[in-house]
Amino acid sequence: MASALKSFDKIHILLRACIKPTFFKTSAVAKYAPAIKLVIGGNAEIQRQAIGSCELICMDLAATTFPLLLKQMYDEDLIDEEVLLLWAGSEERDEYVDAKVSEEKRLALRAASTAFIAWLEEAESESEEE
């Protein structure tokens, strides 16, 4: 059955099964990183789908949990810096956002992640200067 699923369906199912609201207490991202990495496979589009799944996971949590989840996904090399910066640069709702995530909540999650994105941009500009 898994071979019949498209990759973006696999990442949504996997992330929603593995990453629970207490992910930051249970180190779920680190625990499941090898399996998540197999599904993502370095594909930028699947990484963007993963960000959409993260939005859905954090939809009913405090908005401050969303950048924490993104940071953990970034630290485990599951989502590339370039993909995160492209996501942050797009203001409009795109096809990767789950329909269950309201526009208001999507904007709140995006706003909560501005400090993390600013940190990524600063790190990128420092590496370019070197």
Summary of the model, kept short:
The chain has 130 residues and is mostly helical.
Low-confidence stretches: none
The CATH topology name reads Serine Threonine Protein Phosphatase 5, Tetratricopeptide repeat
Beta-strand portion reads: under 5%
State the assembly state of the protein chains. single chain
Distance between the termini: 48 Å
The best one-word shape is globular
The number of helical segments is 8
Radius of gyration: 14 Å
Number of strands: 0
Major sheet details: none
Based on secondary structure, the structural category is mainly alpha
Report on this structure.
With 130 residues, the chain is mainly α. The protein has a single domain, classed as Serine Threonine Protein Phosphatase 5, Tetratricopeptide repeat (Alpha Horseshoe). α1 packs parallel to α4, α4 runs antiparallel to α5 and α6 crosses α8. It is globular, with a radius of gyration of 14 Å.
